[in-house]
User: What shape does this take?
Amino acid sequence: PEFTMIEIYQAYGDYETMMDLTEQIVVNALKAIGNSLIIPWGDAGDQIDLTPPWPRRKYADLFREHAGCDMSDAAAVAAVAKKFGIKTEGVHPDVIINEVFEKTVEDHLSGPVFVIDYPASICPLTKRKQSDPSIAERFELYIRGMELANAYTELNDPRLQEELFKTQLAGLAAEDSMAKMDHDFVKALKVGMPPAGGLGIGIDRLVMLLTNSHAIKDVIFFPLTRHEDQVPVDKKTGKEKTAQQEG
Assistant: This one.
């Protein structure tokens, strides 16, 4: 099942260079299979124009446009969340905002479009913008409402990273916090990590796009998975049936 992924890190890069690289990877993949940069999507004559450069839209602007309120208006955000049945009690405001974003914005991201500058509180491994530390240098690539890539400027400040881990784990039971606090990672940052950009691209979803496939099972190697209690058993022998016996 999902997820086949390509993961890339570039020393002295950032989320801007990762956006450029993402465009290059997709465009070169299209050229490699002999496709033009305008590809078919669906059976109704729809087309996707992948000619770069692709638009870059700020998370906050898209939220305001489709949710109908500003992210900073807590009462209005709560009202929208209630309309969609999103839990708000005891939940961090930025988590609520992100759930509202998913409900109201993602289906409108026809794309290709880079959604940039996410709330920093939901991006604990991401570098903050110098001009506004509440914003993280992160992007996600959407095409036809489907997320294809996620990337950011890596946070390489060990003191801030350790502080963010502790903040993220506040209130958890000791055994949970010990399991999730990555001391080795923080130690490695203290030894020294250059500024870097990191990128992850969902290969299965990219193949869906390139082959005009609308179901993930059509492009993955082993689309059928079953729980152990669903495996057919021969009633006489008690042994698992083979594929030939099932047929």
